[in-house]
Amino acid sequence: MADSTTNPYAAAGVDTAAGDLAVELMKSSVRATHGPEVLGGVGGFAGLFDASALRDYRHPLLATSTDGVGTKVAIAQAIDKHDTIGQDLVGMVVDDIVVVGAKPLFMTDYIACGKVVPNRIADIVRGIADACTATGTALVGGETAEHPGLLGPDDYDVAGAATGVVEKDAVLGAELVRDGDAVIALASSGLHSNGFSLVRHILTGAGIGYGDRADDLGATWGEALLEPTRLYTLPLLKLIEQLPGAVHSLSHVTGGGIAANLARVLPQGSWAEVDRATWSPDPVFRVLADIAGTPLEQTEGTWNLGIGFLAIVDGAQADAAIAAIEAQGIAAWRAGTVHLGAVPGEGFEQGAKGVDGGAVRLVGGYRDGAK
After folding, report:
1. Other beta carbons within 10 Å of 1
2. In a domain? residue 3
3. Does residue 8 sit within a domain?
4. 149 Rama class: left (phi>0) / alpha (psi -120 to 50) / beta
5. Which reaction does it catalyse (predicted)?
6. Are residues 30 and 104 in the same domain?
7. Staple partner for 38: which of 34, 126, 236, 331, CB 3.0–4.6 Å?
8. What pLDDT sits at residue 238?
9. Does the pLDDT of residue 9 top 60, yes or no?
Protein backbone atom coordinates (compact mmCIF):
# COMPACT_ATOMS: atom_id res chain seq x y z
CA MET A 1 0.00 0.00 0.00
CA ALA A 2 1.32 3.39 -0.90
CA ASP A 3 2.11 5.71 2.04
CA SER A 4 -0.90 8.00 2.44
CA THR A 5 1.21 10.52 4.39
CA THR A 6 3.19 11.35 1.26
CA ASN A 7 0.75 10.34 -1.47
CA PRO A 8 -2.54 12.28 -1.45
CA TYR A 9 -3.98 9.93 -4.08
CA ALA A 10 -3.48 7.02 -1.69
CA ALA A 11 -5.17 9.05 1.04
CA ALA A 12 -8.15 9.33 -1.30
CA GLY A 13 -8.25 5.54 -1.59
CA VAL A 14 -6.43 4.93 -4.88
CA ASP A 15 -3.43 2.60 -4.61
CA THR A 16 -1.26 3.04 -7.71
CA ALA A 17 1.35 0.65 -6.36
CA ALA A 18 -1.24 -2.12 -6.17
CA GLY A 19 -2.20 -1.34 -9.74
CA ASP A 20 1.39 -1.67 -10.86
CA LEU A 21 1.68 -5.03 -9.07
CA ALA A 22 -1.51 -6.25 -10.75
CA VAL A 23 0.01 -5.43 -14.15
CA GLU A 24 3.16 -7.37 -13.28
CA LEU A 25 1.11 -10.40 -12.23
CA MET A 26 -0.90 -10.46 -15.46
CA LYS A 27 1.93 -9.79 -17.94
CA SER A 28 2.82 -13.38 -18.75
CA SER A 29 -0.75 -14.48 -19.40
CA VAL A 30 -1.41 -11.45 -21.62
CA ARG A 31 1.81 -11.98 -23.61
CA ALA A 32 0.76 -15.58 -24.27
CA THR A 33 -2.05 -14.25 -26.49
CA HIS A 34 0.34 -12.24 -28.67
CA GLY A 35 1.41 -13.37 -32.08
CA PRO A 36 3.81 -11.52 -34.38
CA GLU A 37 1.00 -9.08 -35.29
CA VAL A 38 1.07 -7.52 -31.81
CA LEU A 39 3.68 -4.81 -31.41
CA GLY A 40 4.96 -3.38 -28.15
CA GLY A 41 4.45 -4.78 -24.69
CA VAL A 42 1.98 -4.67 -21.84
CA GLY A 43 1.32 -1.35 -20.14
CA GLY A 44 1.41 1.08 -23.05
CA PHE A 45 -1.17 3.77 -23.62
CA ALA A 46 -2.44 1.93 -26.69
CA GLY A 47 -2.08 -1.54 -28.13
CA LEU A 48 -0.64 -1.94 -31.62
CA PHE A 49 -1.75 -4.61 -34.07
CA ASP A 50 -0.05 -5.02 -37.44
CA ALA A 51 -2.86 -4.86 -40.01
CA SER A 52 -0.63 -5.58 -42.98
CA ALA A 53 -1.94 -9.16 -43.02
CA LEU A 54 -5.29 -7.74 -44.12
CA ARG A 55 -3.69 -6.97 -47.51
CA ASP A 56 -4.23 -10.65 -48.29
CA TYR A 57 -7.98 -10.06 -48.17
CA ARG A 58 -9.77 -9.07 -51.36
CA HIS A 59 -12.24 -6.80 -49.57
CA PRO A 60 -11.83 -6.98 -45.76
CA LEU A 61 -14.58 -5.76 -43.48
CA LEU A 62 -13.87 -5.11 -39.81
CA ALA A 63 -16.37 -6.43 -37.28
CA THR A 64 -16.51 -5.12 -33.73
CA SER A 65 -18.42 -5.96 -30.56
CA THR A 66 -18.50 -4.85 -26.94
CA ASP A 67 -20.18 -6.35 -23.88
CA GLY A 68 -19.83 -7.21 -20.21
CA VAL A 69 -20.68 -10.09 -17.91
CA GLY A 70 -23.55 -8.52 -16.00
CA THR A 71 -24.53 -9.46 -12.47
CA LYS A 72 -22.78 -12.82 -12.66
CA VAL A 73 -19.83 -10.94 -11.17
CA ALA A 74 -21.81 -10.63 -7.92
CA ILE A 75 -21.59 -14.41 -7.47
CA ALA A 76 -17.85 -14.44 -8.16
CA GLN A 77 -17.43 -11.73 -5.55
CA ALA A 78 -19.65 -13.54 -3.04
CA ILE A 79 -17.57 -16.75 -3.10
CA ASP A 80 -14.23 -15.05 -3.85
CA LYS A 81 -13.64 -16.99 -7.08
CA HIS A 82 -12.51 -14.85 -9.98
CA ASP A 83 -10.73 -17.13 -12.47
CA THR A 84 -13.76 -17.88 -14.68
CA ILE A 85 -15.31 -14.44 -15.14
CA GLY A 86 -12.71 -13.63 -17.79
CA GLN A 87 -13.87 -16.49 -20.00
CA ASP A 88 -17.43 -15.25 -19.61
CA LEU A 89 -16.33 -11.85 -20.88
CA VAL A 90 -14.57 -13.25 -23.93
CA GLY A 91 -17.55 -15.47 -24.68
CA MET A 92 -19.92 -12.52 -24.60
CA VAL A 93 -17.69 -10.30 -26.76
CA VAL A 94 -15.76 -12.49 -29.20
CA ASP A 95 -18.58 -14.94 -29.90
CA ASP A 96 -20.69 -12.03 -31.12
CA ILE A 97 -18.11 -11.35 -33.82
CA VAL A 98 -18.26 -14.83 -35.32
CA VAL A 99 -22.02 -14.33 -35.91
CA VAL A 100 -21.17 -12.44 -39.10
CA GLY A 101 -18.52 -14.99 -40.03
CA ALA A 102 -15.60 -12.86 -38.86
CA LYS A 103 -12.33 -14.11 -37.44
CA PRO A 104 -11.37 -12.25 -34.23
CA LEU A 105 -8.14 -10.26 -34.31
CA PHE A 106 -7.73 -8.48 -30.98
CA MET A 107 -9.51 -7.50 -27.79
CA THR A 108 -9.19 -4.96 -24.98
CA ASP A 109 -10.69 -5.18 -21.50
CA TYR A 110 -11.78 -2.78 -18.77
CA ILE A 111 -12.07 -3.61 -15.06
CA ALA A 112 -13.60 -1.12 -12.62
CA CYS A 113 -13.14 -1.94 -8.96
CA GLY A 114 -13.50 -0.39 -5.54
CA LYS A 115 -10.02 -1.49 -4.53
CA VAL A 116 -7.23 -3.04 -6.57
CA VAL A 117 -6.40 -6.43 -5.08
CA PRO A 118 -3.52 -7.53 -7.34
CA ASN A 119 -4.13 -11.29 -7.19
CA ARG A 120 -7.85 -10.83 -7.84
CA ILE A 121 -7.24 -8.62 -10.87
CA ALA A 122 -4.61 -11.03 -12.13
CA ASP A 123 -7.09 -13.93 -11.83
CA ILE A 124 -9.67 -12.04 -13.86
CA VAL A 125 -7.18 -11.06 -16.57
CA ARG A 126 -5.68 -14.55 -16.64
CA GLY A 127 -9.15 -15.89 -17.43
CA ILE A 128 -9.57 -13.32 -20.18
CA ALA A 129 -6.17 -14.17 -21.64
CA ASP A 130 -6.73 -17.94 -21.56
CA ALA A 131 -10.07 -17.52 -23.34
CA CYS A 132 -8.49 -15.16 -25.87
CA THR A 133 -5.94 -17.87 -26.63
CA ALA A 134 -8.76 -20.41 -27.00
CA THR A 135 -10.52 -18.17 -29.55
CA GLY A 136 -7.43 -17.04 -31.46
CA THR A 137 -7.71 -13.48 -30.19
CA ALA A 138 -4.84 -11.23 -29.12
CA LEU A 139 -5.37 -9.34 -25.86
CA VAL A 140 -3.64 -6.10 -26.81
CA GLY A 141 -4.56 -3.78 -23.96
CA GLY A 142 -6.83 -2.96 -21.09
CA GLU A 143 -7.47 -0.76 -18.11
CA THR A 144 -8.00 -1.36 -14.40
CA ALA A 145 -9.67 1.60 -12.73
CA GLU A 146 -9.97 2.00 -8.97
CA HIS A 147 -13.18 3.77 -7.89
CA PRO A 148 -13.17 4.10 -4.08
CA GLY A 149 -16.39 5.51 -2.70
CA LEU A 150 -18.28 4.52 -5.84
CA LEU A 151 -17.69 0.77 -5.56
CA GLY A 152 -17.13 -1.25 -2.39
CA PRO A 153 -13.65 -2.71 -1.69
CA ASP A 154 -14.67 -6.12 -3.03
CA ASP A 155 -16.86 -4.87 -5.87
CA TYR A 156 -15.85 -4.86 -9.53
CA ASP A 157 -17.30 -4.94 -13.01
CA VAL A 158 -15.73 -6.07 -16.27
CA ALA A 159 -16.28 -5.11 -19.90
CA GLY A 160 -14.45 -5.57 -23.15
CA ALA A 161 -14.38 -4.89 -26.86
CA ALA A 162 -13.00 -6.90 -29.75
CA THR A 163 -12.36 -6.48 -33.45
CA GLY A 164 -12.37 -9.11 -36.18
CA VAL A 165 -12.23 -9.36 -39.96
CA VAL A 166 -14.25 -11.05 -42.68
CA GLU A 167 -14.24 -10.97 -46.47
CA LYS A 168 -17.13 -8.90 -47.78
CA ASP A 169 -18.45 -11.76 -49.89
CA ALA A 170 -18.25 -14.14 -46.91
CA VAL A 171 -20.41 -12.16 -44.48
CA LEU A 172 -23.16 -14.28 -42.95
CA GLY A 173 -26.64 -12.92 -42.41
CA ALA A 174 -30.38 -13.14 -42.92
CA GLU A 175 -30.16 -12.36 -46.64
CA LEU A 176 -28.53 -15.77 -47.22
CA VAL A 177 -31.27 -17.77 -45.50
CA ARG A 178 -33.41 -19.94 -47.79
CA ASP A 179 -36.65 -21.87 -47.50
CA GLY A 180 -35.96 -25.29 -45.97
CA ASP A 181 -32.78 -24.27 -44.15
CA ALA A 182 -32.14 -26.24 -40.98
CA VAL A 183 -31.91 -24.63 -37.55
CA ILE A 184 -29.01 -26.34 -35.77
CA ALA A 185 -28.72 -25.91 -32.00
CA LEU A 186 -25.35 -25.93 -30.24
CA ALA A 187 -25.43 -26.88 -26.58
CA SER A 188 -24.61 -24.32 -23.91
CA SER A 189 -22.48 -25.04 -20.86
CA GLY A 190 -25.23 -23.74 -18.58
CA LEU A 191 -26.51 -20.26 -17.90
CA HIS A 192 -23.56 -18.57 -19.63
CA SER A 193 -23.75 -14.87 -18.66
CA ASN A 194 -27.39 -13.87 -18.99
CA GLY A 195 -30.35 -13.92 -16.66
CA PHE A 196 -28.42 -13.73 -13.40
CA SER A 197 -30.62 -11.02 -11.96
CA LEU A 198 -33.45 -13.57 -12.09
CA VAL A 199 -31.18 -16.29 -10.67
CA ARG A 200 -30.16 -14.11 -7.75
CA HIS A 201 -33.78 -13.08 -7.13
CA ILE A 202 -34.89 -16.73 -7.01
CA LEU A 203 -32.16 -17.81 -4.60
CA THR A 204 -32.56 -14.79 -2.35
CA GLY A 205 -36.30 -15.36 -2.15
CA ALA A 206 -35.72 -18.99 -1.19
CA GLY A 207 -33.12 -18.11 1.43
CA ILE A 208 -30.39 -20.03 -0.42
CA GLY A 209 -26.78 -18.91 -0.11
CA TYR A 210 -24.07 -19.36 -2.72
CA GLY A 211 -22.12 -21.53 -0.32
CA ASP A 212 -25.07 -23.87 0.21
CA ARG A 213 -24.88 -27.29 -1.37
CA ALA A 214 -26.99 -27.84 -4.48
CA ASP A 215 -27.25 -31.62 -4.36
CA ASP A 216 -28.98 -31.92 -7.74
CA LEU A 217 -26.08 -30.01 -9.32
CA GLY A 218 -23.25 -31.78 -7.52
CA ALA A 219 -21.64 -28.58 -6.24
CA THR A 220 -22.32 -25.53 -4.14
CA TRP A 221 -24.67 -23.03 -5.71
CA GLY A 222 -21.83 -20.58 -6.26
CA GLU A 223 -19.67 -23.15 -8.02
CA ALA A 224 -22.52 -24.37 -10.22
CA LEU A 225 -23.56 -20.86 -11.24
CA LEU A 226 -20.00 -19.84 -12.13
CA GLU A 227 -19.70 -22.54 -14.79
CA PRO A 228 -17.99 -20.46 -17.52
CA THR A 229 -19.57 -19.53 -20.82
CA ARG A 230 -18.79 -21.97 -23.62
CA LEU A 231 -16.60 -20.57 -26.39
CA TYR A 232 -17.91 -21.17 -29.92
CA THR A 233 -15.64 -19.04 -32.12
CA LEU A 234 -13.09 -21.56 -33.39
CA PRO A 235 -15.56 -24.47 -33.79
CA LEU A 236 -17.87 -22.25 -35.84
CA LEU A 237 -15.06 -20.84 -37.96
CA LYS A 238 -13.93 -24.40 -38.63
CA LEU A 239 -17.50 -25.36 -39.59
CA ILE A 240 -17.66 -22.47 -42.05
CA GLU A 241 -14.35 -23.57 -43.56
CA GLN A 242 -15.27 -27.27 -43.75
CA LEU A 243 -18.65 -26.69 -45.42
CA PRO A 244 -18.19 -23.73 -47.77
CA GLY A 245 -21.44 -21.93 -48.41
CA ALA A 246 -23.48 -24.20 -46.14
CA VAL A 247 -23.73 -21.84 -43.17
CA HIS A 248 -26.10 -18.98 -43.94
CA SER A 249 -26.70 -17.28 -40.61
CA LEU A 250 -25.64 -17.58 -36.97
CA SER A 251 -27.24 -16.49 -33.71
CA HIS A 252 -25.59 -16.09 -30.31
CA VAL A 253 -28.24 -16.94 -27.72
CA THR A 254 -27.72 -14.26 -25.07
CA GLY A 255 -30.15 -11.81 -23.45
CA GLY A 256 -33.69 -12.31 -24.73
CA GLY A 257 -33.48 -16.08 -25.07
CA ILE A 258 -33.80 -18.48 -27.98
CA ALA A 259 -36.75 -17.11 -29.99
CA ALA A 260 -35.72 -13.46 -29.92
CA ASN A 261 -32.12 -14.10 -30.88
CA LEU A 262 -33.03 -16.48 -33.70
CA ALA A 263 -35.61 -14.02 -35.07
CA ARG A 264 -32.87 -11.37 -35.35
CA VAL A 265 -30.95 -13.41 -37.94
CA LEU A 266 -33.86 -14.55 -40.10
CA PRO A 267 -35.17 -12.50 -43.04
CA GLN A 268 -38.49 -10.70 -43.06
CA GLY A 269 -41.22 -12.94 -44.41
CA SER A 270 -39.74 -16.08 -42.84
CA TRP A 271 -40.66 -18.14 -39.80
CA ALA A 272 -39.35 -21.05 -37.80
CA GLU A 273 -40.60 -23.26 -35.01
CA VAL A 274 -38.04 -24.55 -32.52
CA ASP A 275 -39.13 -27.93 -31.21
CA ARG A 276 -38.59 -28.19 -27.45
CA ALA A 277 -38.74 -31.99 -27.71
CA THR A 278 -35.36 -32.03 -29.48
CA TRP A 279 -33.45 -31.38 -26.25
CA SER A 280 -33.55 -31.57 -22.48
CA PRO A 281 -32.65 -28.36 -20.60
CA ASP A 282 -29.70 -28.68 -18.24
CA PRO A 283 -30.43 -29.47 -14.57
CA VAL A 284 -29.48 -25.96 -13.42
CA PHE A 285 -32.45 -24.51 -15.33
CA ARG A 286 -34.88 -27.10 -14.01
CA VAL A 287 -33.77 -26.75 -10.40
CA LEU A 288 -34.01 -22.96 -10.49
CA ALA A 289 -37.45 -23.09 -12.11
CA ASP A 290 -38.63 -25.62 -9.53
CA ILE A 291 -37.45 -23.41 -6.67
CA ALA A 292 -39.27 -20.46 -8.21
CA GLY A 293 -42.38 -22.53 -8.91
CA THR A 294 -42.21 -21.36 -12.52
CA PRO A 295 -42.64 -23.44 -15.71
CA LEU A 296 -39.52 -23.44 -17.85
CA GLU A 297 -41.52 -21.89 -20.69
CA GLN A 298 -41.89 -18.71 -18.64
CA THR A 299 -38.10 -18.30 -18.48
CA GLU A 300 -37.53 -18.63 -22.24
CA GLY A 301 -37.12 -14.90 -22.68
CA THR A 302 -34.38 -14.80 -20.04
CA TRP A 303 -32.27 -17.98 -20.09
CA ASN A 304 -30.72 -19.94 -22.95
CA LEU A 305 -32.16 -23.20 -21.52
CA GLY A 306 -29.33 -25.28 -22.94
CA ILE A 307 -28.80 -23.68 -26.38
CA GLY A 308 -25.84 -21.33 -26.58
CA PHE A 309 -25.71 -20.82 -30.35
CA LEU A 310 -27.91 -21.47 -33.37
CA ALA A 311 -26.66 -22.10 -36.90
CA ILE A 312 -28.95 -21.76 -39.91
CA VAL A 313 -27.53 -24.05 -42.56
CA ASP A 314 -28.48 -25.51 -45.93
CA GLY A 315 -31.03 -28.20 -45.13
CA ALA A 316 -29.22 -30.75 -47.30
CA GLN A 317 -26.06 -30.31 -45.25
CA ALA A 318 -27.63 -30.33 -41.80
CA ASP A 319 -26.30 -33.77 -40.88
CA ALA A 320 -22.79 -32.88 -42.04
CA ALA A 321 -22.91 -29.65 -40.02
CA ILE A 322 -24.01 -31.48 -36.89
CA ALA A 323 -21.25 -34.04 -37.31
CA ALA A 324 -18.64 -31.31 -37.82
CA ILE A 325 -19.72 -29.48 -34.67
CA GLU A 326 -19.87 -32.61 -32.54
CA ALA A 327 -16.41 -33.62 -33.75
CA GLN A 328 -15.20 -30.51 -31.92
CA GLY A 329 -16.76 -31.57 -28.63
CA ILE A 330 -20.02 -29.60 -28.71
CA ALA A 331 -23.37 -31.40 -28.71
CA ALA A 332 -25.54 -30.29 -31.63
CA TRP A 333 -28.91 -31.21 -33.05
CA ARG A 334 -31.54 -30.14 -35.56
CA ALA A 335 -34.09 -28.06 -33.66
CA GLY A 336 -36.25 -26.72 -36.49
CA THR A 337 -36.65 -25.63 -40.09
CA VAL A 338 -36.92 -22.19 -41.70
CA HIS A 339 -39.91 -21.49 -43.91
CA LEU A 340 -40.65 -18.56 -46.19
CA GLY A 341 -44.21 -17.30 -46.30
CA ALA A 342 -47.08 -16.25 -44.04
CA VAL A 343 -46.70 -16.94 -40.33
CA PRO A 344 -49.01 -19.87 -39.44
CA GLY A 345 -50.73 -18.81 -36.24
CA GLU A 346 -49.99 -16.89 -33.07
CA GLY A 347 -47.31 -16.91 -30.40
CA PHE A 348 -44.43 -15.97 -32.70
CA GLU A 349 -41.76 -13.50 -31.68
CA GLN A 350 -41.08 -11.10 -34.56
CA GLY A 351 -37.56 -9.71 -34.71
CA ALA A 352 -35.78 -8.25 -31.69
CA LYS A 353 -33.27 -5.60 -30.58
CA GLY A 354 -34.48 -3.18 -33.25
CA VAL A 355 -34.14 -5.73 -36.05
CA ASP A 356 -37.31 -6.41 -38.05
CA GLY A 357 -36.40 -9.97 -38.90
CA GLY A 358 -38.22 -13.28 -39.06
CA ALA A 359 -40.77 -14.85 -36.72
CA VAL A 360 -39.95 -17.61 -34.23
CA ARG A 361 -41.85 -19.59 -31.65
CA LEU A 362 -41.00 -22.55 -29.46
CA VAL A 363 -43.43 -25.48 -29.67
CA GLY A 364 -44.11 -28.73 -27.85
CA GLY A 365 -42.76 -29.85 -24.51
CA TYR A 366 -39.19 -30.34 -23.39
CA ARG A 367 -37.74 -33.82 -23.61
CA ASP A 368 -37.79 -36.01 -20.49
CA GLY A 369 -41.02 -34.39 -19.32
CA ALA A 370 -39.47 -31.12 -18.11
CA LYS A 371 -42.08 -28.39 -18.00
Report:
1. 8
2. no
3. no
4. left
5. 2-formamido-N(1)-(5-O-phospho-beta-D-ribosyl)acetamidine + ATP = 5-amino-1-(5-phospho-beta-D-ribosyl)imidazole + ADP + phosphate + H(+)
6. yes
7. 34
8. 97
9. no
Last residue of a domain, one of 127, 144, 170: 170
| Pairwise CA distance, residues 317 & 246, whole Å | 7
Query: What gap in Å lies between CA 201 and CA 7, rounded to an integer?
Result: 42
User: 110 and 249, same structural domain?
Assistant: no
pLDDT digits 0-9 by tens, 158-193: 999 999 999 999 999 999 999 999 999 999 999 999
d(CA 109, CA 86): 9
Same domain, 159 and 297: no
Residue length of the chain: 371
**Together in a domain, 253 and 210:** yes
Cα–Cα distance, 362 to 305 (Å, whole number): 12
Q: What is the pLDDT of residues 322-353, one digit of tens each?
A: 999 999 999 999 999 999 999 988 999 986 67
- Per the structure, the complete domain to which residue 323 belongs is given by 174-369
Q: How many Å apart are CA 163 and CA 47, to the nearest integer?
A: 13
Rounded distance between C-alpha atoms, residue 267 and residue 174, angstroms: 5
What is the layout of strands, in order, in the sheet containing 247-252?
247-252, 307-313, 182-187, 332-340, 270-275, 355-363, 349-352
Instruction: Find the CATH number of the domain harbouring 130.
Output: 3.30.1330.10
Identity of residue 89: L
pTM: 0.90
Q: Are residues 178 and 164 in the same domain?
A: no
Encode burial over 184-210: b for 16+ CB neighbours within 10 A, e otherwise: bbbbbbbbbbbbbebbbebbeeeeeeb
- How many distinct structural domains can be found in the chain? 2
Residues 40, 78 within the same domain: yes
H helix or E strand, kind and range, residue 309: strand 307-313
Looking at 124, 152, 170, which one is the last position of a domain? 170
Question: Looking at the structure, do residues 141 and 178 belong to the same domain, yes or no?
Answer: no
Residues 6+ apart with CB under 8 A from 291: 202, 203, 206, 208
| Number of other CB atoms surrounding residue 62 within 10 Å | 13
